[in-house]
Specification:
The complex is a heterodimer of chains A (201) and B (193).
Chain A (H helix, E strand, L loop, with lengths): L20 H13 L3 H23 L2 H17 L10 H21 L2 H12 L7 H18 L2 H13 L3 H8 L3 H18 L6
Helix pairs in contact in A: 1-2, 2-3, 2-4, 3-4, 4-6, 4-7, 7-9, 8-9
Chain B lengths: L5 H8 L5 H13 L1 H18 L7 H16 L14 H19 L15 E2 L18 E2 L31 H18 L1
Antiparallel strand pairs in B: 1-2
The chains are: A mainly alpha (201), B mainly alpha (193).
Chain lengths: 201, 193
């Protein structure tokens, strides 16, 4: 599973995935819908790391990422019959994971414990953070800002950036016209840019 | 070229424009600080989302898989409240209504007008002679009426047949009357003290 910042289709490539993987995924999800336990295990083997990785980047804590990964696969297992094949199976799984992770962030945003912890961290006299720490802090702020977006904009932004989907693929998986997808995406990015302007200089 | 609108600038950033439009926007952005700043911000956000965190080892993912499989083997949890069934609130409301009704019948002083047993209790006539202070009626206790043997059923409970002497035509319940009776009774108690 390699990551190339500006690369196409290499971002969330699962272990051993090939071009024929799309057909295999479709067969797996059909098997899961029919109660094939082995098909579910195969799906789990193939996508547990990519799904966990997305959740970890969105939440920053392995415990939270693990919960989201578990919930994602359980939801996929119980609702495999609702998969319509409009999108790739990986997109469908990431869509579930992204929405669950956004919910976790929204709940955490309203948690007084988190506010208190952040307040303590900001108040403590620590030396200025190194560059990786700054990047991590920016990602945390970015994810908080994404969680505050309208859900349809947040989903469009995350699917585009995580899976590098084309506008056509996004429209298919979201079930909306391409124009709507473009509009959601541009509004999301502009809102984020304005809300995070102190990090953009 | 004027600044492209946000949608076009985003499409450029996402590689969704054709070659001609791409070249056009690229040339514009190279000389426009505002568009260049926006594109830089978009790229910064993309990088932040795409940079991966180090992942745990294989044993961690094996344990995660085992947990997911164990969870999947469980039956789905029943929803807490099913639609279409009578809500519990309905039963609470019904029970509360019954309790209030019983309270009105048996607890409110003066309720003897609704209570067949109490309606047969005859207060003793107060002595109404002497000065104004002495006019406070002296409490002499309640006199229970004699109950005809025929008015008792086999289990000893009172049969609510009308008697010839009292309550042949009971007055309908009135809150004003009930309150007046309450006042009368409290005066009686005070006079005892």
């Amino acid at each position: 599973m390699g990551v190339t910042i500006n690369g196409k289709r290499e971002l969330m490539k699962p272990e051993g995935a090939e071009q024929s993987g799309l057909a295999e995924d479709a067969a797996l999800i059909r098997g899961v819908a029919e109660g094939d336990h082995a098909a579910f295990e195969r799906l789990l083997d193939k996508y547990r790391k990519p799904v966990f990785s997305v959740a970890l980047r969105m939440l920053g804590r392995a415990e939270d990422a693990e919960d989201v990964t578990q919930e994602t696969f359980i939801q996929a297992y119980r609702h495999a019959g609702t998969f319509e094949g409009r999108s790739r199976v990986s997109t469908w799984l990431f869509q579930i994971a992204v929405n669950r992770a956004l919910n976790v962030r929204r709940r955490a945003r309203n948690s007084p414990i988190r506010e208190m912890r952040e307040g303590v961290e900001h108040a403590s006299p620590v030396p200025p953070p190194e560059k990786p720490a700054l990047e991590k802090e920016f990602r945390g702020r970015l994810m908080d800002a994404v969680a505050k977006l309208p859900p349809d904009q947040a989903e469009a932004f995350m699917l585009r950036e995580i899976e590098d989907l084309s506008y056509k693929e996004m429209a298919d998986s979201i079930g909306a016209p391409i124009g709507t997808v473009m509009s959601r995406l541009s509004r999301a990015r502009e809102t984020l840019r304005v809300n995070l302007k102190e990090y953009m200089e | 070229m004027n600044c492209p609108d946000e949608i076009k600038l985003n499409a450029y950033h996402d590689g969704e424009l054709d070659a001609g439009e791409t070249a056009e926007v690229r040339m514009h952005a190279s000389g426009c600080a505002d568009c260049a700043k926006r594109l830089l911000a978009y790229e910064k956000m993309r990088s932040a989302v795409r940079v991966e965190e180090p992942l745990p080892d294989a044993a961690y993912f094996d344990a995660l898989k085992a947990r997911v499989l164990a969870e999947a083997a469980k039956p789905p949890a029943e929803p807490a409240v099913r639609r279409g069934r009578t809500p519990a609130l309905f039963y609470f409301a019904a029970a509360a209504a019954v309790l209030i009704l019983l309270g009105i019948i048996f607890i409110i002083p003066g309720g003897q007008r609704l209570n067949p047993v109490a309606s047969k209790i005859k207060p003793a006539p107060p002595a109404m002679v002497g000065t104004a202070e002495e006019a406070v009626p002296e409490f002499t206790g309640y006199a229970l009426p004699e109950i005809e043997p025929a008015a008792l059923d086999e289990s000893g409970l009172l049969i609510t047949t009308e008697t010839e002497t009292e309550t042949a035509d009971p007055e309908p319940f009135s809150l004003d009357v009930a309150l007046a009776d309450m006042l009368d009774e409290s005066e009686l108690k005070l006079s005892e003290e």
